[in-house]
């Protein structure tokens, strides 16, 4: 029973921390910043993008280093707790961001710090996965955790929308004049994350701490990371997988970043319709992550990734060809079914491929593969959109990243599936 309790607590952390990207960086606070805090929407959007890019670069370079250090030191939960606490505190302080341009820099710093802590925390969280379940069940636990995350983020978003954002009488008597009903989203996310993350720290097992102190662990970890990079040919299979993931995740990240812009610009979606579509996409993604978890364990993570990214390519192409809003819904909603498994199986495959003694370091490199080239997709999409004077042609570049990722993925060897 204690083992099951630990696995449930691990999944519940995904439920807890998904509130941050859903409410803060995707739906509510990001829109509040660009429309009410920044001087204008254009400059606000650019500044938000720069802050997120700086955060991504920090994660890309710090994640592998800390992962290597933790592999030498042993325990992961103290590090996860430290970065979770930073994310909670920075999110709570967003309450101070009033709808005035003078608060823009404060907002950007807090969001960048919170996002960096969120992403680095995921390095240690993901590395705990293989310690909780056998290799033959990694796919199920990873998929269930990812599914929990989607629905946890949606529940927190629903709470915020019903209680504060889309009501004439926000809870607790908050005022709409000074955007209190929007600023409260930061403390709500902080409370949600702070409460639902606790079971992981009480019930999830952790590795035994090693006898080395932090200084020794840091020196040994950095030396190990340098050796790993220098001897990358000895980890050629993992390197090939990380390259493939870098490509198709660039496509996914660009789809997330510009999907709403495409829907609004080409099909005339209103803000309310975008919210509804985003919620529906999250529901289908959660269902897909949970449903494909069994397939992951039975036939392997590589197959799930190949099938998911292939279907994303086909459905993405359909989105480029449809002409009506109804057609967009028909082609767009099934995308979520394959977005969830592509992300979940990616984590499972890394858990199966990573050597046990380098597991956290490898998940640091896993984080790097999702962040180091995050600028490429948006940059290429923007350039093609301008050159061709067409959003459709710009969005077509996403399919290129999917196909390139599939091509590299073909050569990856997998071990560890049932």
Describe the structure.
The chain has one domain: MFS general substrate transporter like domains (Growth Hormone, Chain: A, Up-down Bundle). The protein is built from 19 helices and no strands. The protein has helices at 2-17, 19-27, 29-37, 41-73, 77-92, 104-127, 129-132, 138-165, 180-183, 185-196, 198-203, 214-230, 236-267, 271-299, 301-321, 325-353, 359-371, 376-388, 391-409. The radius of gyration is 21 Å and the shape is globular. The protein starts with a helix and ends in a 9-residue tail after the last helix.
Number of strands: 0
- The first-to-last residue Cα distance is 23 Å
Number of helices: 19
Mean pLDDT: 82
Would you list the SSEs in sequence order as H and E?
A: HHHHHHHHHHHHHHHHHHH
CATH topology-level fold name: Growth Hormone, Chain: A
Query: What's the gyration radius in Å?
Result: 21 Å
- Proportion of strand residues: under 5%
Summarize the amount of helix as a percent range: over 70%
The first-level CATH class name: Mainly Alpha
CATH superfamily: MFS general substrate transporter like domains
The backbone outline, from C-alpha atoms, is globular
Task: Please give the largest β-sheet.
Answer: none
How many domains is the backbone divided into?
1
| Secondary-structure content class | mainly alpha
Per CATH, the architecture is Up-down Bundle
**Regions with pLDDT < 50 over 5+ consecutive residues?**
none
């Amino acid at each position: 029973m204690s083992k099951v309790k630990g696995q449930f607590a691990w999944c519940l952390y995904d439920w807890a921390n998904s509130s941050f990207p859903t409410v803060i960086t995707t739906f509510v606070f990001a829109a509040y910043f660009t429309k009410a805090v920044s001087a204008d929407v254009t400059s606000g959007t650019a500044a938000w993008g720069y802050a997120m890019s700086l955060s991504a670069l920090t994660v890309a370079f710090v994640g592998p280093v800390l992962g290597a250090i933790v592999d030498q030191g042993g325990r992961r939960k103290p590090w996860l707790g430290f970065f979770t606490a930073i994310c909670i505190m920075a999110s709570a302080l967003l309450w101070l961001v009033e709808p005035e341009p003078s608060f823009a820099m404060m907002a950007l710093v807090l969001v960048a710090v919170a996002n960096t802590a969120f992403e680095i925390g995921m390095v240690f969280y993901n590395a705990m996965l293989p310690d909780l379940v056998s290799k033959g069940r990694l796919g199920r636990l990873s998929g269930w955790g990812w599914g929990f995350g989607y629905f946890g983020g949606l529940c927190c978003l629903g709470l915020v929308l019903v209680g504060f954002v889309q009501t004439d009488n926000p809870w607790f008597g908050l005022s709409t004049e000074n955007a209190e009903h929007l600023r409260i989203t930061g403390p709500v996310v902080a409370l949600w994350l702070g409460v639902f993350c606790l079971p992981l720290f009480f019930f999830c097992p952790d590795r035994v701490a090693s006898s080395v102190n932090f200084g020794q662990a840091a020196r040994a970890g950095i030396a190990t990371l340098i050796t790993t990079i220098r001897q990358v040919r000895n980890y050629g299979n993992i390197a090939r997988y990380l390259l493939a993931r870098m490509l198709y995740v660039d496509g996914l990240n660009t789809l997330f970043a510009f999907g709403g812009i495409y829907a609004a610009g080409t099909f005339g979606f209103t803000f309310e319709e975008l919210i509804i579509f985003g919620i529906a996409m999250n529901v289908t993604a959660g269902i897909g992550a949970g449903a494909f978890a069994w397939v992951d364990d039975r036939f392997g993570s590589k197959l799930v990734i190949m099938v998911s990214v292939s279907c994303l390519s086909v459905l993405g192409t359909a989105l480029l060809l449809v002409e009506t809003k109804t057609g967009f819904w028909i082609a767009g909603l099934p995308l979520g079914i394959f977005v969830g498994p592509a992300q979940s199986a990616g984590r499972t495959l890394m858990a199966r491929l990573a050597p046990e003694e380098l597991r956290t370091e490898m998940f640091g490199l896993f984080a790097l593969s999702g962040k180091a080239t995050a600028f490429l997709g948006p940059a290429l999409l923007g350039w093609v959109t301008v050159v061709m004077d067409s959003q459709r042609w710009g969005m077509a570049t996403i399919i290129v990243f999917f196909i390139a990722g599939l091509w590299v993925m073909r050569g990856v060897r997998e071990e560890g599936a049932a």
